[in-house]
């Protein structure tokens, strides 16, 4: 039951070339930077990543993206990541853009063993009708477009069929975790980390504070250890190394 691993390198050592990854984080909040850096150092590439965004400010997944290690991104937000936009428009990167709530539910559904579900989000748009550019040809044309999805009517309202997401691995970051893998997230870090953790067949969690089993009140657990296979305890320096994306100060 002790799921603690000694090093970040050891935690990601079996992530192979071409693996699919669900990665937690919301902006710069709750991003598993230590595990991502270990994956970068390992040299693994051709990755298919599922995440809200693909990193920013040369941190998070932006490290792997800039190194050309990511082949496909399933996400809901490009934001200010200029390298992401460049690779996408140049035809170097395949990108499946999904409404943010749909992405969250697809991850949760995959983790809960639900193969597919119907949602009204995207009905009447290219999300449902198909034709969204997944890959450009580098010359302004579309090399690969999204296919149409099944649309069905329930009680007079149309809904589009979306499939649950399962990935080979998941990388997440928690504020607190115990040796059994029970995790607690802090504020907005809870947005996508629990969902990414549920979707991974092998989930690796870096935790800012490692405690012994029983020290977390069961009612305070945000993600039960059944979804987590490995726990990496961060050093105090790693735990406090957090960046601010938009710094705002009073005059």
Automatic annotation (TrEMBL):
Coiled coil: none annotated. This is CoA transferase subunit A. The lineage of its organism: Bacteria, Bacillati, Actinomycetota, Actinomycetes, Kitasatosporales. Keywords: Transferase. SMART domains: CoA_trans. PANTHER family: ACETATE COA-TRANSFERASE SUBUNIT ALPHA, KETOACID-COENZYME A TRANSFERASE. One of its GO terms (molecular function) is transferase activity. Pfam families: CoA_trans (PF01144). Signal peptide: none annotated. InterPro entries: 3-oxoacid_CoA-transf_A, CoA_trans_fam_I, NagB/RpiA_transferase-like.
């Amino acid at each position: 039951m002790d799921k603690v691993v000694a090093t970040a390198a050891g935690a990601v050592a079996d992530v192979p070339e071409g693996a699919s990854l669900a990665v937690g984080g919301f902006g710069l909040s709750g991003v598993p930077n230590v595990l991502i850096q270990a994956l970068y150092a390992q040299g693994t590439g051709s990755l298919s990543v599922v995440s809200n965004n693909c990193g920013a400010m040369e941190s998070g997944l932006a490290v792997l993206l800039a190194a050309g290690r990511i082949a496909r991104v399933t996400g809901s937000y490009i934001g200010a990541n200029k390298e992401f936009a460049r690779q996408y428009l140049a035809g170097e990167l395949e990108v499946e853009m999904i409404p943010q709530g749909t992405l969250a539910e697809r991850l949760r559904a995959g983790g809960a063993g639900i193969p597919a579900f119907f949602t009204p989000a995207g009905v009447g748009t290219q999300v449902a009708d198909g034709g969204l550019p997944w890959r450009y040809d580098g010359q302004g044309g579309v090399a690969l477009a999204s296919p149409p999805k099944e649309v069905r009517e329930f009680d007079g309202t149309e809904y589009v069929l979306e499939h649950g997401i399962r990935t080979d691995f998941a990388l997440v970051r928690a504020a607190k975790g115990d040796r059994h893998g029970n995790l607690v997230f802090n504020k907005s870090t809870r947005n996508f980390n629990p969902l990414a953790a549920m979707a991974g067949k092998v989930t690796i969690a870096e935790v800012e504070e490692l405690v012994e089993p029983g020290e977390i009140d069961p009612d305070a657990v945000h993600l039960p250890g059944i979804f987590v296979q490995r726990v990496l305890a961060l050093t105090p320096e790693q735990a406090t190394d957090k960046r601010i994306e938009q710094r705002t100060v009073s005059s």
